[in-house]
């Protein structure tokens, strides 16, 4: 599903809290293209994208989203130019320094999903401290996928299962899910990707097995509250079958 931001009817849409998604995951794509379109350096796009996250966090709480997972830095992003990687690290550190107090006061629980290896030590400490400070907050769970890869996550889960001596016959889907970074959380109901790209890019590939996917043509820095509302409303209007027929669903809800 893609959305053209010029749709004149979009402003009239409202989110149904009863049918809205409880766990939303976002692939925040298009910062670089947003900047290029305006004749700005890529760094300007990344900074604007970070500013936009504040709007979406507030909107998520307003729209009764309980878990928000954001794809901030993938394991593949290490292959980008060193200067850009350093900038992304600085942006994460800046966000932790500048936003942590307000996030904590607003009841946001921060969780890091991904590997710590490769992240500078001082930023690792700030991530750990932020997670510890907010661990009891329950207004919104914010999963920050930083140095994250879906296949890497599954490999680490399998390695941990083996290290724990679990017998082969005891390995189930539920067990594997419990060993993932998102263990204990529901799988995402909705995955949003901005900027018009049509792929998951190694994001939550185990957890996304039954997620609804929404693709937006809008670059992430411009994906505002109204665009978010449109995505959630689109989700609310879908019928989730989970392999069942429409008749079975109708019987269950009758």
TrEMBL record:
One Gene Ontology term of the biological-process aspect is: polyprenol biosynthetic process
CDD domains with a match to the protein in the record: Cis_IPPS
Which residues bind substrate per the record? Answer: 30-34, 42, 46, 74-76, 78, 80, 193, 199-201
Q: Report the co-factor binding details.
A: Binds 2 magnesium ions per subunit.
Give the keywords, sorted.
Magnesium, Metal-binding, Transferase
Which cofactors go with this protein? Mg(2+)
UniProt xrefs under InterPro entries:
UPP_synth-like, UPP_synth-like_CS, UPP_synth-like_sf
Q: Which domain of life is it from?
A: Bacteria
Among the GO molecular function terms of this UniProt record, one is: ditrans,polycis-undecaprenyl-diphosphate synthase [(2E,6E)-farnesyl-diphosphate specific] activity
| Role according to the record | Catalyzes the condensation of isopentenyl diphosphate (IPP) with allylic pyrophosphates generating different type of terpenoids.
Question: Which NCBIfam families is this protein grouped with?
Answer: PRK14830.1, uppS
What name goes with this protein? Answer: Isoprenyl transferase
Give the organism, scientific name.
Answer: Phototrophicus methaneseepsis
């Amino acid at each position: 599903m893609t959305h053209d931001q010029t749709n004149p009817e979009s402003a009239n849409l409202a989110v149904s809290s009863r049918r809205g998604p409880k766990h939303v995951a976002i692939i925040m794509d298009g910062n670089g293209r947003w900047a290029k379109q305006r004749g700005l350096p890529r760094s300007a796009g990344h900074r604007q994208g970070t500013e936009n996250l504040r709007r979406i966090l507030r909107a998520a709480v307003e729209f009764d989203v309980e878990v928000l997972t954001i794809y901030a830095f993938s394991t593949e992003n290490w292959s980008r130019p060193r200067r850009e990687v350093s900038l992304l690290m600085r942006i994460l550190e800046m966000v932790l320094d500048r936003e942590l107090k307000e996030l904590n006061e607003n009841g946001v629980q921060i969780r890091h999903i991904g590997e710590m290896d490769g992240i500078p030590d001082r930023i690792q400490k700030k991530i750990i401290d932020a997670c510890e400070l907010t661990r009891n907050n329950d207004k919104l769970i914010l999963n920050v996928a930083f140095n994250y890869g879906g296949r890497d996550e599954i490999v680490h889960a399998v390695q941990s299962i083996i290290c724990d001596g679990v017998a082969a016959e005891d390995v189930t889907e539920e067990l594997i899910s419990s060993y993932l970074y998102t263990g204990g959380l529901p799988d995402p109901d909705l995955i949003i990707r901005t900027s018009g790209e049509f792929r998951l890019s190694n994001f939550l590939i185990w957890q996304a097995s039954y997620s609804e996917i929404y693709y937006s043509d809008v670059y992430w820095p411009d994906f505002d509250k109204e665009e978010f509302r449109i995505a959630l409303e689109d989700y609310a209007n879908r019928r989730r079958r989970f392999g069942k027929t429409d008749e079975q669903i109708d019987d269950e809800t009758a």
